[in-house]
Amino acid sequence: MTPILRAAAFAAAVLLPAAQAVAQSLAQSSSPAAPVSPPAVQASRPAAPPAASAAQQAALDACLARLRADAIARGVPRAAVERHLAGLERDPSVLESLDFQPEFRTPIWDYLAGLVDTQRVDDGRAMLERWREVLDGVQARHGVDPATVVAVWGVESDFGRATGRKSILRSLATLSCEGRRQAFFRNELFASLRILAEGHVDPAAFNGSWAGAFGQTQFMPSTFLEAAVDFDGDGRRDIVGTVPDALASTANYLRRAGWRTGEPWGWEVRLPEGFDASLAGRSKRRPLADWAARGVRRVDGRPLEASQTASALLLPAGSAGPAFIVLRNFDAVYAYNAAESYALAIVHLADRLRGGTPFVTPWPTDDPGLSRAERRELQTLLLARGHPIGEADGMIGSLSRRAIRDEQARIGLPQDGRAGMKLLATLRRDPPAASR
After folding, report:
1. Containing H/E element for 297?
2. pLDDT per residue over 110-143, tens digit each?
3. Which of 89, 278, 365, 416 sits at 20 to 30 Å (Cα–Cα) from 403?
4. Percent helix, strand, coil in the chain (nearest 5)?
5. What is the pLDDT of residues 283-296, one digit of tens each?
6. 284 domain residue, yes or no
7. Which candidate, 264, 257, 252, places its Cα nearest to that of 143?
8. For residue 282, is it within any domain?
């Protein structure tokens, strides 16, 4: 595996466990609908870390003193090292995120309902139109179609609206000196210093996720150094403040990860009666002709190609839910964030941006997930019933889940704290006590 893929795989599979990545993605994408325009990326103020004790801060300072010498020995300019490592404060919240244990697992139908909803499809189509000239140029240079690039942009940062507020240097400094995988984070810290030394990103805008991902399409610093491109020709590879650079960098990453121009990612398919579900799995490759011989057909009834193209069958919710045959381009998207649910969200959103429809086979649940608009509606109904959950922002956090459990107990639903359609439909029909 190349360094670029190693960084992406670790960031997705280790730094962001699947349930946490789901929660983060849905939270980032929950801002109320806004008119679509070129994102005005500003230097948002970094989130202030909790106070560290004097001993903890002294330990970080001593560690950073050692890292300064290491960074300079690796060729990072001394001036950048001295300037950007000076005065960094310890941020224990990133250590909590590193060891995060999710309260519950998010079903895939909840994950996709929040990431691929009508709002994001509409916004994405507007972005396709607004940035068409740039996207056509990106496709000509890197071979990745506009819909896929815009889908990554939409899922990663809601088209530049939510790129993260953590100081990249502060987060990586803390993770380089404490917790698991310090060597990995030190490499990312040194890469971030190179980025600043080369002048690609405004230091005041160098903010992102707790794990160090930043920009409109969320690159780790080492990934940036290998895959980011200067598309607008201004001498800077600025994926934070320059949309063309961000879009082109994403396409370049996918190309390097194995994207094949003009090929599909795969298809939703139908399985014959009695199909052996043990054949499913992304690593269980078979020629398309083999799946066709076993009676697998595209969901629209068309047969699969009788070719030797390597492919795999995915059953993300078991044999009772939607089934997918995936090809090499699905793997390229998977390399961006090593989770099948993430890759499925990207390719499905891209299909929707091209005019495609939702999946034909329903998910095996009688309580579907909620879109971002529906989550805000649910929170509005909770607020009307006196639950102190803050604003109706679509982010289902601990206060919202507590209120949901209270309402579930009142109306006789399982008290799992999940924001589902059954609860929303019940609260729509059941007026608040004051109204009653």
Report:
1. strand 297-298
2. 999 999 999 999 999 999 999 999 999 999 999 9
3. 365
4. 50, 5, 45
5. 999 999 999 999 99
6. no
7. 252
8. no
User: Which token pair is 107?
Assistant: 């079903």
Q: Is residue 360 part of a domain?
A: no
Type and span of the H or E element at 313 = strand 310-314
> What residue has token string 């310890």?
90
User: What average pLDDT does the chain have?
Assistant: 88
Per residue in 188-198, pLDDT tens? Answer: 999 999 999 99
Q: What pLDDT was estimated at residue 347? A: 98
Domain that holds residue 130: 3-256
Tokens matching residue 39 = 């994102």
Establish if 288 belongs to a structural domain. Answer: no
Distance of CA 398 to the CA centre of its chain: 21
Higher pLDDT, 39 or 228: 228
Total tally of structural domains belonging to the chain:
2
Please tell me what DSSP assigns to residue 233.
-
In this structure, what is the dihedral angle of CA atoms 346, 350, 352, 357, given to the nearest 10 degrees? -70
**What is the distance of C-alpha 40 from the center of its chain?**
20
The letter for the amino acid at 418 is R
As a whole-number percent, the residues of the chain with pLDDT over 90 amount to 79
